Amino acid sequence: MSFERENIRRMSGYVSGEQPDDDRTLKLNTNENPYPPSESVTNILREFDPVQLRRYPPPTAARFRELAARLHGVDTDNVIATRGGDELLRLVITTFVDPGQPIGMTNPTYSLYPVLAQIQDCPLVEVDLNDSWQPPSTFAQQMNDAGVKLTLLVNPHAPSGILLDTQEIGNLADELDSILLLDEAYVDFVGQDYDSAELIDKHDNLIILRTLSKGYSLAGLRFGYGLGASSLIEPMLTKTRASYNLDLISQQIAEAALADQTTAGNNWHRVIEERERLRDLLAAIGLPSPASHTNFLLVSAPEGIGAEEIYKKLKERYILVRYFASPRLSDKLRITIGTRSENEQLLAALTEILGNTDPTTA
Ligand SMILES: Cc1ncc(COP(=O)(O)O)c(C=O)c1O
């Protein structure tokens, strides 16, 4: 006999990107930052006194929230700190959506969203993106007509990298009857004027997701945060959040990383520069991709060789990229931007695989 709830028994869990534990593999598959975090993170770890662990950590990460509030020009009660962006998604769903109520999203999108909806036993309302990877003009209407309680939108978009501007986001928040969860996991790599935090004053149905995993090189830490009207933040902060959801070491590291905007900003700049260079070089060998505002590129495989085959051949050469076996994406690969030398290694391998030049006979 199974003790699982029926919806849990029916579902499959989230499939993480491959995480090899050897030093040889070049990992360009899970959008991690190729540069190290701030030196102040190293100092926190070096100087941390374990005696501090006798006590429970600050329950709501108040110092981190104050820092984040200052950074975004909002109040502390507009901020919640969470164990990665993923915990915020889970909190938003369990706080605001009853089992059975529809959750809306675009197709394609971040593959964790459907999994979290299934856990809450909520039907999905999926709307296809248009050919430019943007929501159609009827997106909000379709969500409203379907009675959606929560709309999940990633911007810049994953996996295409395209960006909607804040005007479009504001309009969408206005038109939607539901909460709009704006997932900005990759926003640090936008590379142009973009500040959605100012929208939360005007839209009491908007929650913005941020993470330290990508922009601050701290995917292993598990730290993210949400910004929103205090009426949305307060129930998550005081009722549905796990007590002491963030350990003391994480809180101190996250504070140090966020405070060092110079290191983070330099890393964003380096990733953006490499992204633009790599995009041109990949296009030149037959792998075009839409202009990206993230730390990855979604390249299309050329005629004559499938994306899956390229993925496998790269893997044989100890290079991991992301292949999605879904209808809209099965002819594409998502490639994380590495350092200059990592990207050179990738380009050499792809050139060989695509037969543009054969290094063994060159
Ligand atoms: C679109 C998107 N949103 C949110 C996250 C969550 O990131 P984390 O839980 O590491 O903060 C990710 C991670 O890959 C992501 O790709």
Structure overview:
The protein is of the alpha/beta class and 362 residues long. The protein folds into two domains: 6-36 and 262-354, Alpha-Beta Complex (Aspartate Aminotransferase, domain 1); 39-260, Aspartate Aminotransferase, domain 2 (3-Layer(aba) Sandwich), CATH 3.40.640.10. The chain has helices at residues 6-10, 39-47, 62-72, 84-96, 112-119, 139-145, 166-175, 230-240, 248-259, 261-284, 307-316, 340-354, and strands spanning 26-27, 79-82, 103-107, 124-128, 150-154, 179-183, 206-211, 224-228, 296-300, 319-320, 322-323, 332-336. α3 runs parallel beside α9 and α4 (84-96) packs parallel to α5. The termini are far apart. Bound molecules: pyridoxal-5'-phosphate. The site of pyridoxal-5'-phosphate has 13 residues, from α4.
User: So, CATH architecture of the largest domain?
Assistant: 3-Layer(aba) Sandwich
Uncertain stretches? 358-362
User: Briefly, what CATH class of the largest domain?
Assistant: Alpha Beta
Instruction: Give the DSSP E fraction (strand runs of 2 or more residues).
Output: 5-15%
Mean pLDDT: 96
- Overall tally of domains: 2
Q: Structural class of the helix and strand makeup? A: alpha/beta
Q: Could you name the CATH topology of the largest domain?
A: Aspartate Aminotransferase, domain 2
> Topology as H/E string?
HEHHEHEHEHEHEEEHHHEHEEEH
Approximate shape: globular
Distance between the termini: 64 Å
Annotated CATH homologous superfamily of the largest domain: Type I PLP-dependent aspartate aminotransferase-like (Major domain)
Rounded to an integer, what's the Rg over CA atoms? Answer: 21 Å
The main sheet orders its strands as 2-8-7-6-5-3-4
Per DSSP, the total helix count is: 12
Count of strand segments: 12
